[in-house]
């Protein structure tokens, strides 16, 4: 029976599923993005140190970690696990647009008639305009 090829050593950028098969510390499996393999650190045969980021279900890095693992227990993932994007939001008109926009009924003031459009000023309609115009 032919001997199985040894597993490829992880490389920077690899996305790995790290389980208990890689090390007993991973009772709860994690997804791990490799940023560095420590080839220069002396370890037991069949083990190595990796630096990288733990990745959450949304595909975001949540913690930087150094892990001590057996490469034979690592499983490579093809891409970052991502949840589907949220559907686009429908814009809700602001209160001002609803009150003053086209097609909206004009607001009325019982004593002076329709309210002015925002940003306009008519001094003749102001109660205090009489005081400003007439001499004392």
**Share of helix, binned:** under 10%
Q: Ranges with pLDDT <50 over ≥5 residues?
A: none
- State the end-to-end distance: 114 Å
Shape: rod-shaped
Structural class: mainly beta
**SS elements, strand count:** 7
Rg estimate, integer Å: 34 Å
Number of DSSP helical runs: 2
User: Numbering strands along the chain, what is their spatial order in the largest sheet?
Assistant: 4-3-2-1-5
Return the string of H and E elements: EEEEEHEEH
- Determine the mean pLDDT: 75
Give the strand content: 25-35%
Tell me about this structure:
The protein has 136 residues and is mainly beta. 8% of the residues lie in helices and 27% in strands. It has 2 helices and 7 strands. The protein has helices at 95-100, 129-133, and strands at 15-18, 30-38, 48-55, 61-69, 74-76, 108-109, 113-114. The protein has a 5-stranded antiparallel β-sheet, with no helix packed on it. A two-stranded antiparallel ribbon has the order 6-7. The longest helix has 6 residues, at 95-100. It is rod-shaped. The termini are far apart.
Structure at a glance:
The protein is mainly beta and 136 residues long.
Keywords:
136 residues, mainly beta, five-stranded antiparallel sheet, rod-shaped
